[in-house]
Amino acid sequence: MPALPAPDSMDAAPAAASAGPAFSPLYRQIKALLVKSLNSGEWKPGELIPSEQELASRFGVSQGTVRKAIDEMAMENLLTRRQGRGTFVATHAEQNIQYRFLRLAPDKGPASGMARHFMDCRRMRAPAEVARALELKPGDSVLQIHRTLSRMGRPVVLDEIWLPATPFKGLTADRLAQYAGPMYGLFETEFGVRMIRAEEKIRAVAADARTAEILQVAVGAPLLNVERLSHTYHDKPVELRRGWYDTSTHYYRNELN
Amino acid sequence: MPALPAPDSMDAAPAAASAGPAFSPLYRQIKALLVKSLNSGEWKPGELIPSEQELASRFGVSQGTVRKAIDEMAMENLLTRRQGRGTFVATHAEQNIQYRFLRLAPDKGPASGMARHFMDCRRMRAPAEVARALELKPGDSVLQIHRTLSRMGRPVVLDEIWLPATPFKGLTADRLAQYAGPMYGLFETEFGVRMIRAEEKIRAVAADARTAEILQVAVGAPLLNVERLSHTYHDKPVELRRGWYDTSTHYYRNELN
DNA sequence: CAGTGGTCTAGACCACACC
DNA sequence: GTGTGGTCTAGACCACTGA
């Protein structure tokens, strides 16, 4: 009955490392189409997407099927549902779901924002590990950003951020400093790159001389080292971030579910 | 139409710090009943629960409503659905969903299991912070366990585990050592306590003399300090765990979604 | 008020596991 | 084959938003 193209199974099939067409239900095909529209920029972050009824008739399926597709996408933080208003493309520019990526909380006091200071933003050839992580060709152009986060005037975080030069052409330290709100919000509005998901590798390391000076700690002091690889739609990596956190008055919070 | 008791709204209502009855849909009431059955031990970890049809007729609702309740519980890892077989109570004793709580991975090689060594298991009065975390009265009896995890013969993790003595009466280091499989599996089968969810606070710290000797690192070496508070049904805290991880050849992996 | 997402129902059929 | 969960549909009504 539904008039859809081939049941391509390009979606989450956890157990499928083997062959086989791996049956893909209708709602996943709908979901794939919706993700495609998000990725192409047809609907931008913060915008309202068509109603479930309209999408249902557009795709020639029932509202329930569209609903199930949207349900999954809402759970993955791709979309945000608001009863009575509609369904919106999720965005990092909102205040409500903040601190989704910065997991550092102070030992005492509220988890208020931290003061940002951008030290530099340089363009250079990608070092080997950076190129590998970002799936670039060796020698491709990348941006390297250094910044700190401070609370109560004391630096707590030093970040080294690597971005592929291609989608982020024209990004400067000034541009970063002038933008109010989360960095990932700027990436969305200015460069059309939305961060969806990230993996982090966390270690305890000893502060080297340069880091110690910036964070105002002793050389050799224990620091939390967080290496984050962030992805946009379709699991494409677009940011490598290395952070050094002074955890003497802050901690990294995590939830295991 | 549905013949259910009062629409008690004791479930996840994130925005409700204010007053109001906070309308609770049918499927959440069903979910609350199912959680109650799990908590009471009517269905034990690993067991098959009644089919959706049977639950639907038992509660006097449609299958779709039961389905939605079970969907949420499956997402929270309370239940596991298996097509063609039925719905089972989730358990830590299974091999498939391992490493849900131990997030430490080796830099190279597969994330194979680690050798456990239990150093001691003592009964004592709860220190103030432990009592507070576990919501016990000051001076209540608790168990303190020390253990290490090793890979390739080298110690990587030192854990200090605090458990309330009441549900865990009779737990000994021998009992722990003899049980094959994850510790939380033993807690389920022997003591009827299932860990559902945990919060972790992570820091980088310098190794003290005692820890350094156990982990065979230098005094002052940077270690990952992980403080975990684990909860069972209804968010009741039942375990406080403090871990020190040597991250020179391992890292703590995390996913941000 | 109209329009949206949210809930609930009833029934059909499919995919899968076990006998 | 029988029984389970998984998908899909169609329609009704509820709760919420904003004009």
Protein architecture, described:
2 copies of one chain form a homodimer. The first copy, chain A, is α+β, with helices and mostly antiparallel strands and 257 residues long. Chain A has 2 domains: 26-89, Winged helix-like DNA-binding domain superfamily/Winged helix DNA-binding domain (Arc Repressor Mutant, subunit A, Orthogonal Bundle); 104-252, Chorismate lyase-like (Chorismate lyase, 3-Layer(aba) Sandwich). Chain A contains 7 helices and 11 strands. Chain A has helices at residues 26-40, 52-59, 63-75, 128-134, 173-178, 183-191, 209-215, and strands at 48-49, 79-82, 86-89, 104-106, 115-125, 141-151, 154-164, 197-206, 222-232, 236-245, 250-256. In chain A, strands 5-6-7-10-9-8 form a 6-stranded antiparallel beta sheet. In chain A, strand 6 (141-151) and strand 7 form a beta hairpin. The longest helix of chain A is centred in the first third of the chain and has 15 residues, at 26-40. Mean pLDDT of chain A is 90; it is low at 1-19. The A-B interface holds A 75-77, 100-101, 103, 197-206, 220-225, 228, 245, 247, 251-257 and B 75-77, 100-101, 103, 197-206, 220-225, 228, 245, 247, 251-257. Strand 8 (197-206) of chain A pairs antiparallel with strand 10 (250-256) of chain B, so a sheet runs across the interface. Chain A binds a DNA duplex (19 and 19 nucleotides) through residues 1-2, 23, 25-27, 51-53, 61-65, 67-68, 70, 81-87. Chains A, B: Pfam families: GntR, UTRA. Chains A, B: It comes from Ideonella dechloratans. Chains A, B: Keywords: DNA-binding, Transcription, Transcription regulation.
